[in-house]
Here is the input.
Amino acid sequence: MATYGAREWTERALDAVSAHTSVPHEVVVVDNASTDGTRDMIRERFPRVRLVANEENVGYGAANNQAARLTSAPVLALLNSDAIVPPGWAEPLLGALRRPGVGAVVPTLVHLDGRMQTAGAVLGADGSVLALGNGADAADPFYAFTRVCDFGAGACLLVHTTDFLAVGGFDPIYDPAYFEDADLCLKLEARGQRTVYVPDVRVEHLQFASSDPDRAAELFLRSRAPFLERWADHLAVRRLPSVLPEHPARTLAARDALTRARVLVVCGDAFPDPRMATELATLADPVRELRVTVIAAAGDAAAWSRCGAEAVVSEDPAAVLAARAGHYDVVVGADPRIARAHQPQALTVPTALAAAAAVADL
Here is the structure.
């Protein structure tokens, strides 16, 4: 945790870490010359915290790099001083980080009123950033499944220590703040390690506890220039849609912008058990960069969400196909006439095995 003022929020954040972290851990705080009593509060209230007191504000990225070099822990949990972790927060994130091909994991960030702040982030060709789900209901099933994203905010991000150090940690070119987290995740991606969003963990995040919004906007624009210069070729193929509340199709396109193929599966009366439907569970693996949407009238939607599929509870699959017209590459199990009417671009197949074969050819 890097701190710069915001003593009361830092105290709340450290209280939450202490109360809600059940896995073995150590806490390293690098303070960037706070003048509001933050250091004295940490020494008094949290004597087990390893406190590094910088003589000047070296910036967010540099302070986190200091902490990373000090610890022998195998995993770094980067946490802002205005981020409040919930009970049991670490285990689901660690579980996702252990999966092959995963370089970093991020939770859902929520505003203090409980609304979603971000369900992972995607990048545009011009370096623009879309925080998916901002302002939505935090329980919205549209976002409630594990999936790959471009990056997640460093407000709460887990990464293997060796990987963080291997790519140079946070690049000082972005100090004092912004885009160091996006740059880190793209550097991991270049090594074949994707960033995965884990919806089951919801972390409260104030935003701007250590700076004012105007200064934050200024720093954002300053840091975007070197970020875009570095990653322009990588982002050149992006077509990030503008997202407006009255255009849900654009939101859908943005959410699924990173997917290689989009598969819609109509299950009928009930969701199949994902432990039995191995073909679909494999398709839904988020690291495979496939988007699988499963529609059923009832059943255990949460089980499918955990394995990386979007689970839609609906007694009217035709309405879902119509609302998402033109979105899917493969449609499984739907009435062919309805599929052709609303998804004419898609290959219509009868089974999950046929879908797997179709995706392999895309």
